[in-house]
Amino acid sequence: MYSHWIRRNRRNVGIPLALVVLILAKFDARYLWLSIAMVASGEAIRIWAAGHLQKEKVMTTGGPYRLIRNPLYLGSFLIAAGFSVVAGSIWVWLIVFAYFLLCYIPVIRYEENILREKFPDEYPPYAQAVPALYPGTRLYPKSTTFFTWKQALKNKEYNAVLGILAGYVCLFVRSAFL
């Protein structure tokens, strides 16, 4: 029940949480370039994954899905960690870690159960061969998709890009006026 609720409401939890993080952030400009590199890397992974992901149609095993079962969540974690680096607050790190632990782990389990049901022949060998939360060292041998920008747009990855830009703008404005 919890995983189903959190899957549907994680954005509703995440946005107010982001505001709390913004309030707690001190904006440590010494780490700005590291932050940008981490956030850009995370978003690049997300775009790459979104350009392959064909929800409900095929079990996606192309692109980053050949190395990791949950590249979108890895990308999101890198983005959150990148913002945490520049936030300069241990509280931000604790909130981000707790959010991922309490929100994403149950969602991953929930989604994997759906994939097991929907793709009973394909998913078990894939899950056994490809790590869930960190990139593996071997490519999964079967690629079911190829990257297209059209698919990345269909998956609305531009929302993450806009969120990242808004996050940096908020940090800069907050640091300039507070």
Structural account:
The chain is mostly helical and 178 residues long. The protein has one domain: Four Helix Bundle (Hemerythrin (Met), subunit A) (Up-down Bundle), CATH 1.20.120. The chain is 68% helix and 0% strand. The protein contains 7 helices and no strands. It has helices at 2-24, 32-50, 71-87, 90-118, 123-129, 149-154, 158-177. α1 (2-24) packs antiparallel against α4 (90-118) and α3 packs antiparallel against α4 (90-118). The longest helix has 29 residues, at 90-118. The model has no long low-confidence stretch (mean pLDDT 89).
Annotate the secondary structure layout:
Blueprint: H1 2-24, H2 32-50, H3 71-87, H4 90-118, H5 123-129, H6 149-154, H7 158-177
List keywords for this structure.
178 residues, mainly alpha, Four Helix Bundle (Hemerythrin (Met), subunit A)
Net shape: elongated
The stretches of 5 or more residues where confidence is low (pLDDT under 50) are: none
CATH topology: Four Helix Bundle (Hemerythrin (Met), subunit A)
- Count of individual domains: 1
CA radius of gyration is 17 Å
Strand content: under 5%
Overall number of strands: 0
Structural class: mainly alpha
- Count of helix runs: 7
What is the chain-wise order of helices and strands?
Answer: HHHHHHH
Give the biggest sheet: none
Beginning-to-end CA distance, first to last residue: 41 Å
- What is the helical fraction, as a range of percent? 55-70%
